[in-house]
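Working notes for the structural subgroup meeting. M.R. asked for a predicted model of this chain before we commit to crystallization trials. I am recording the input and output together here so anyone reviewing the notebook later can reproduce the run.

Input as submitted:
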Amino acid sequence: MAKENKKSVHVKTGDRVIVTAGKDKGKIGNIKKVNPSEAKVVVEGANLVTKAQKANPAAGVQGGFVKIEAALNSSNVMIVCPSCEKPTRIKHDVVENKKIRVCKKCGEQLDV
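Returned structure, recorded in token form:
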């Protein structure tokens, strides 16, 4: 039996992020999907790949080439703080027995 390593991801679905590495470096978008077991995220409008789609007349799907968003490694994105509008790292604080994410630059809470 293989031992599974539990990975953690610093972003959540809906967070506004900037891509910090790769062909889409500098693009800003929202997180659509997070896969913590593989440490991957899907960002709106970033890492677009072309996929050939087969036609399915029964479902009304037309064949051809479609552009879809592929997953990125979560280490290649950085959260954009909603209050100071700058890319930032996060720190964790405990408020009322709850662990919350806080902007390292301005100190504002990211979890509202």
